[in-house]
Model the fold of this input.
Amino acid sequence: MIAFEEARARVLQSVTPMLQSEMVPVHEALGRVLGQGAVAEFAVPNHDNSAMDGYGIRHADLHPQDAVTLHVCADLPAGDRLSQAIGAGQAVRIMTGAPIPAGVDCVVMQEVVQRVGDQVTIPAGQALGQNIRPAGEDIAKGALYLNKGVRLTPAQLGLLTSMGQTSVAVFKRPRVAVLSTGNEVVRVGNPLRPGQVYDSNRTTLLTALQALGVEVVDLGLVRDDRAAIREALERGASQADAVISSGGVSVGDYDLVKAVLQELGQIDFWKVNMKPGKPQAYGTLGQARFFGLPGNPVSALAVFLLVVRPALLKMMGVAEYVPPLLRLPLLEGRLRKKNNRVDFQRGLIRYDAQQPGVVSTGGQGSGMLSSMAAADCFIVLPAEAVDYAPGELVTVQRIDY
Done:
């Protein structure tokens, strides 16, 4: 049995990014990984423009103590441009986003002026350059504005579009095959007999993989039969870059996945000093990476989120694939443990008196999927015995699908 930190490090060290890229339309690139850095071909904004609705003036026309009245020579909506420069004693009515005309070096917000006909009175106290957004204030021409290896968000796709991009280079997606095993596991829709459970793990894993943005191969539900498991693993290895199974990696008489893996491929490790998720296997099936997850629903999802997901993110080409840890106060209850395993308890981040903190979601059994469904984070308890009281800081890792 190896430590959790060593297990994840070995997995991450063994996987490599899939660096082949392809061009896809920007509107289809949500969640895809940027294959090359994006460089600005023009500045944003590409001209000095007004930060608000108001009046563009020459600062030299102002008096340091008294208001001045100027002649409004033009109206300038956003999208239009004034061809001539404004002269002494003139002002231009200007809308937010409109290009700054030649001669204007100050924009006065409309709420502080008084206008009568084509005359506008400007109060004293206006600053040179106020309310003017200079060209390149957001992004300079030639600047790197998105780094290679980012997983594209709606805001980043909007940014690409604002830079005139209709398509974007992204890394090709890895293909991941998924199967469930176990004679006690039945498909949803069939009646449950005593001792049977529905195949929730496959639903959880398939949807988590879809959210991640990989290509998914569903190998179905496989009974506890050596030949059937062998056929499923061979099929997965031939079709996918990674194979994920749930169940069959513990020490029971019918835990056959580990035995078949030993015949078909190589096992790197199969016990990890963590809770939940102690029985898990990692190795290779031909060219494919193999992740054998526990059969208990919480254990399977915890191992996926803590070990498998970072590995798949790295395969996808994501630059930052290890989730960050936070330190937050425990808001209520006590957290105690005596075992020598790292314990990933399910928690919920809350705000108490404007301060973030964390609470447990309740029962922490490896079969209690309701506590995982209610959680948005793991409370990470170290391997040594601990006893945390309310107010003490605990280590937290957000759950991200």
Notes: The first strand starts at residue 2 and ends at 3. The mean pLDDT is 94.
